[in-house]
Amino acid sequence: MKKLKIYYLALFLLAGLTFVSCEKDSDELTGNAELGGEVIFKSENLGYVVGNGKNTDYIGEFSVFQGPEKIESIDIYKTFSTKDQEGNIITSNKNLVRTITIPTENQHISVPFAVTYNQLIEGLTINGSALSSDDGSLQIGDYWTLSFVSHVSNGLVHENSHNVKISVGTRFSGTYKCVEATYYRIGVLTYTASDWPVKTVIESVDATTYKVNDYLGPFNANTYYFIIDSNDKISIPAFAPDGVTANVGNDLQLISCQTNPNDLSLSKCGTSNVVIRDDINGKDQLKMTFGYIGSGGSREFYQVLEKIVE
Are residues 117 and 132 in contact, defined by beta-carbon separation less than 8 angstroms? Predict the structure, then answer.
């Protein structure tokens, strides 16, 4: 019986130690939340979408829970990270984005903050060079890190142990459906939208280049590339992103309205190769004309792909 009591006592003490440890780990903020308050982020990950505009606001939010000593203001700092040609991550200098004054009369307050591309690049350099004013120069996988420094009423300054990461992605990658299409084989209408796949998957290669997987219109087992520039114009490059491999469809070099307009005369070159943005519902449309020269003449593709919003 005595041994049994000792056993239960040991379990009780172990449970108590575990509880204390968890409580201490939940102090994510200043390193001393009991005195200086606590900051909790709604999300520690935001996405920067190339092509949304350099003055578009990317909005985050954090909550401040005040302690006996009040957080009076929070400085937001930024750094930028990318990969060099060897694949090594290199990081910029650190620069202040802004200082936010925190009301001290409220025990709890939610604080939204917003940053734009122009604000994110200001004052940052990589290897001595300022970041480009053109967000099209960004690479998929680049990111900014926002760090947060709290100024407390007792004069102490604490850097938050948690950061917010803003990762670079692109707007027009995703899954699309065909809403309009024609395929002409040597001047004869052969396929329409009903012959296109139910879903077309488009991947980002870099900030402006996209890869279409599996289907070239109604033909499977194809991969091809297109580019969307800063003016929402679509072009068909001669080569894949490696600069060596030809950009092909059905194993033949792709042609475009720029290179072969007379060979694509049935496929709406005058109104195609543009992006139609849907800023309300996200159902962006890609209007594209391209083709190739096969035996006997040209094969012409015209398609309107609409982004599927789940």
Answer: no
